[in-house]
Amino acid sequence: MSLAGKKTLGVAMVGYAFMGAAHSQAWRTVHRAFDVPVVPEMKVLYGRTRDAAEAAAGKLGWAQAGTDWREVLGRDDVDIVDICTPGDTHAEIAIAALAAGKHVLCEKPLANTVQEAEEMVAAARAARERGVRAMVGFNYRRTPALALARDMIAAGRLGRIAHVRAQYLQDWIVDPEFPLVWRLRKESAGSGALGDIGAHIIDLTQFVTGQRLTGVSALTETFVKERPLPSAATGLSGTGSTEKGAVTVDDAALFFGRLDGGGLASFEATRFATGRKNAMRIEVNGSTGSLAFDFEFMNELHFYDGTEPAAEAGFRRILVTEPDHPYIGAWWPPGHGLGYEHTFTHEIRDFLLAVESGTDPAPSFEDGLGIQRVLAAVQDSAESRSLWVDIPLT
Amino acid sequence: MSLAGKKTLGVAMVGYAFMGAAHSQAWRTVHRAFDVPVVPEMKVLYGRTRDAAEAAAGKLGWAQAGTDWREVLGRDDVDIVDICTPGDTHAEIAIAALAAGKHVLCEKPLANTVQEAEEMVAAARAARERGVRAMVGFNYRRTPALALARDMIAAGRLGRIAHVRAQYLQDWIVDPEFPLVWRLRKESAGSGALGDIGAHIIDLTQFVTGQRLTGVSALTETFVKERPLPSAATGLSGTGSTEKGAVTVDDAALFFGRLDGGGLASFEATRFATGRKNAMRIEVNGSTGSLAFDFEFMNELHFYDGTEPAAEAGFRRILVTEPDHPYIGAWWPPGHGLGYEHTFTHEIRDFLLAVESGTDPAPSFEDGLGIQRVLAAVQDSAESRSLWVDIPLT
Amino acid sequence: MSLAGKKTLGVAMVGYAFMGAAHSQAWRTVHRAFDVPVVPEMKVLYGRTRDAAEAAAGKLGWAQAGTDWREVLGRDDVDIVDICTPGDTHAEIAIAALAAGKHVLCEKPLANTVQEAEEMVAAARAARERGVRAMVGFNYRRTPALALARDMIAAGRLGRIAHVRAQYLQDWIVDPEFPLVWRLRKESAGSGALGDIGAHIIDLTQFVTGQRLTGVSALTETFVKERPLPSAATGLSGTGSTEKGAVTVDDAALFFGRLDGGGLASFEATRFATGRKNAMRIEVNGSTGSLAFDFEFMNELHFYDGTEPAAEAGFRRILVTEPDHPYIGAWWPPGHGLGYEHTFTHEIRDFLLAVESGTDPAPSFEDGLGIQRVLAAVQDSAESRSLWVDIPLT
Amino acid sequence: MSLAGKKTLGVAMVGYAFMGAAHSQAWRTVHRAFDVPVVPEMKVLYGRTRDAAEAAAGKLGWAQAGTDWREVLGRDDVDIVDICTPGDTHAEIAIAALAAGKHVLCEKPLANTVQEAEEMVAAARAARERGVRAMVGFNYRRTPALALARDMIAAGRLGRIAHVRAQYLQDWIVDPEFPLVWRLRKESAGSGALGDIGAHIIDLTQFVTGQRLTGVSALTETFVKERPLPSAATGLSGTGSTEKGAVTVDDAALFFGRLDGGGLASFEATRFATGRKNAMRIEVNGSTGSLAFDFEFMNELHFYDGTEPAAEAGFRRILVTEPDHPYIGAWWPPGHGLGYEHTFTHEIRDFLLAVESGTDPAPSFEDGLGIQRVLAAVQDSAESRSLWVDIPLT
Fold first, then answer.
1. Which candidate in C213, C264, C391 is best for mutational testing of the D interface (most D CBs within 10 A)?
2. What pLDDT, in 10s, does the model give residues A17-36?
3. In 3D, which of B129, B74, B71, B80 has the Cα closest to residue B102?
4. From residue C332, how far is each of B277, B296, D232 by CA, in Å?
5. How many Å apart are CA C96 and CA C88, to the nearest integer?
6. Can you tell me the ipTM of this complex?
7. What pLDDT is attached to residue D188?
8. Same domain, A43 and A172
9. What is the domain range of residue B34?
10. What positions does the domain GFO/IDH/MocA-like oxidoreductase occupy (chains A, B, C, D) (predicted)?
11. Total domains in the fold of chain A
């Protein structure tokens, strides 16, 4: 299938660090792997400093670099704005881009506060009326194994759901000398493990089960209260790394809640689980079966079919690399696994399909707001001796 | 090493169902495998009905059968009373036996209420003054892998503990037609998943870490509110199995708490985790390492040594079958695993060693009371919209 | 079910080391766990030295000890002789015991040579005419997971078998200073890894598939050619442990062969697989499914059902602890695993059932001879530059 | 690091099917992820038919398409020829391209016969004199976990190697109705499972251990002797799929051999291992440690450190996603795994580094010839009743 003659859409990206690199790989690859109806053109990357932005643009495959993202609002050759910055800038960029008629893909969490998220939803709704699309980037939904899990639950394979057990375990700040980076400051990151990785397992729980959390009880902790300030990257006066600053976000968040289908869900998000590198795990137990997943083994989904005779039943490891599995047809033969970056390629594929077909991509900004409300309820409960906090579903 | 000339101790057992069979296997085996200083003599088994008690005594290897356990109080040939009945009878039997100068091994949970447990502790303290010993049977402590975990943590291999993640997952009552057995009635069992299996993971958390829970927040649920009454085993009036009765205990209990060393612990006990048969799991994350265990793989302990270079670090599966491992020297060569029943043989070995050496066995009735207080706090919190409940440590 | 009034059979055991301890545990337990029609009475244990034999008898639960096994031939109170000695004495003891009308359970391998095995088969056939039974102790067949594997293959769940992949990996003599024990001397052990552990995977391959090996090609190796002589346990002349002696058996044996159903089988038996403690593994691939097993995880059987839709197929871990699984009904609830020693309890249960019902137990001495012929063919091929050696099936 | 001003090298690719797609992804990505000294320019793709070649070129990112690969010999803008065709055309293309001064990357196996491979080696040697480089594409060497395994063995972590256990298990032709594609015909593929996947595990064994095979004994089998002819892709007379043709290659190959360091190695390559999708496995046992790998879990390496105390030793799962691991620094944070395609990106990165630095890339054509000789020895032995065949090392 030739790309010749296919429609193109211009793309701008704001931010170029971890998420920027991952998104760029996806923008470069999506039309090479999938038969998408439009071909993205990587027009411009925006960063704070010119040298760094230009180096990143060259390396990552963007035609130009810029330092003022507002410039994009007036560019006719840009149709899509991809926001890969820290959470405190999401609202401003997304609202302006949508107002300018750009489709927006915004990294998660949608915002740092419920109020910002509500304003973004309002902007997305107004844009939708004009055929402009907005999506929040919970990329893990596009892990083939998790997309399969959702499909199996939607098809009724698990029956009535009693339990969800979700964990996101990392260990990258166990060392108390690890510096006070932006992800450890409330003003830039909003929250700590909770918003960064807890948001993912909240989204996955709701995505995989098709249900919503109706309330939570929570406990949070900051194990290391002060950390060295990060060294100045450049400049005369040196690093300053002997000074310390207060950690203003949580290191770990534990919470449990109820699903609107009657089940219970437990959550744990932490950056202090020594030895767990990216253990985003979810297990769902239903009346007729169970599913279990761990991102450290991202090509596997474990399924227990409770309708089999007891003597032959068991958790089976489905290697999610078959042509029949979600997204896999575009890739390699069975047993030839995918990696982390593929989740972004799949996300952008789905985004492009939605944009081109004039439908709303998922997760929507409304979905992102829903998660923001769960995050806020968790923080409220944690500040109120774990007292139960109801979550409004509207 | 011959048994000839060794001192013997007479043993009586009350109850002969699941726990009775497991304990009998241990009483028959302990001196065959271990070099214990005393040899148990299985004198008498007590049950409610003569025929059943006699059949059980013959099958399980007890010299006699009886129907009135009070008879044991006056028997000089019985030194030890082993209580394997449901929780509502523990206090009466244990207190009487201790008063009569019998050493007591009592199945867990110690009692159905904090008040009963306090009375049992008082009886055990009085007995201790007279050299009479009391122990509560949290057998899982004697799983070699868990004894090893305790030793490794005590030796400082994990550093400062940030997280405990404990689960006890079963699925034997997922079917709503499963009958209303005694374990599902508050008057006999005290609580449901909470006291039956939740008690084990509370004990293990405290045993393995050497720390105590200082407070909890909890959520419980009874998914199936009514179940068929069990058929009458004998008698005129038939089975009645089409009638239903109310389930008066929890099907699942979720809670989290704080440890007195500053860490967080999360717990989940459920009988609704389809496909999980006896998944008693515990993971401990410390500043320099982690340990993970699942009873479905009882001969394995997973250890992450955070002091290794990052390029070579990883969770290692320690096959806990080496002569250097706790209890293993008595058994088979490396790689020849043990089973569930061995936990009881180890428990009774430790009990006999304590009795003979005149020291207090662990877990003591005080330990059992401590767990009872955690169970009560969990229930209090669950009844108060998950509000935090502090646990008195004395 | 009471044991009262049940018929009893007297048992004598020859040898009391590793196998003797394991068999004793089984003789003590079999009627306590299973509803066997006869109750074994542990009459007498024979060893080479009086003190050791008496200590062992006391410890292991035998009523008497003796030093001359020939004495058993005239004892009317002994019905069964259980042979747990090294392989070089099997033939003499078994033939004499069968001639004296004793049922015989003989440890594997049946003998050290094909000729001895043939003589034992002749004795067993003659005894069979008189209602006297003989069985060779390939205990691993009685692992519930492997009995289940056999049942599933016999039921056609795997279709036509293409591959068997069998390994028995240990590491207990990797250290070149490990002494020259009897298992490392040809005159006592017959062969090394080949006969000791290779025999088990040959038996399992044939047992599980129901097929026979028709020929093999082989390679053997002795990595450590000389080892320290073992210290004299007692006596004047001291230990001699600085002297070395030649290792006269293989450390490792690799071979592959053809099955009479058209499939291929590969085998590896070694004591030099560092880190593998008792990894007796077998995988069977058929046209419609596969099974995999590893004794280090003895309570699990992995099954791939190739008839499922590709999107849901996967190797499933069957936890072989359900009441419907072979042998499990006698034991504990689901998820409460068994250990190594249970394989012997199951073996003796099946032996008693056969003896009492007047049928032939399996594996028979003929089966043991068949395995001896495979072992001999392996050695022949290994000595002939791996040239293929056919195996007579009669 | 900007790409601006970097030297570029023009690349041509011959073939565009499975390997062509994987290589294209790598050519597009290598300079985006790695800081390579030269930037590849994807000039032209050659295929047999114009339409298909043009569609593939557009999809995969090549600037042009052509149908006659010989055209490349005269193109000054092409510096590298990447050969992704079936094995029967490798020799002709590679020899011509090298003669024309093009660096060559040739897919494995190097050729279909030893003689072709020898001619290719001669061409590579002549080209090397002129600074022209040749590499054979055993991509799996560039799996980070396997590169780590090689490094650990080279550093002496395993001591003296006793065993290699290598398997490559797939199941894609278990169905006898699977058609007679080119990989099942000797004239195009040279051999079956042996050359296609067996070649990989031979290379890995030698790569990881740094040792060479000195001889082998082998057994091969074709389970399904006839298969339906593939439908004609185009043409008047229809598909012909009801006709059958003879399968002229092996379905499975088993062999074992000796390494020049004194160890033993066993191999199994099959396409009939139901449920195993791409289980390329290797385990190495040395005197002080062991390593194990399975490509179905490509981000993990299992390491047993035999120098640890027995009570704490165990196979550890190293998640090979740390910045210190081979190739990983270019990618994502710990725990964010890579996929199959990354092996090619790493391969091409190493190829570009070698080309630019004027050193010889590995594996060389000489390495490819060495593997060809092992493949030939396997076939010889299999045709001679498994008789041992020595392998010349020169």
1. C264
2. 999 999 999 999 999 999 99
3. B80
4. 12, 13, 60
5. 14
6. 0.96
7. 87
8. no
9. 7-139
10. 148-291
11. 2
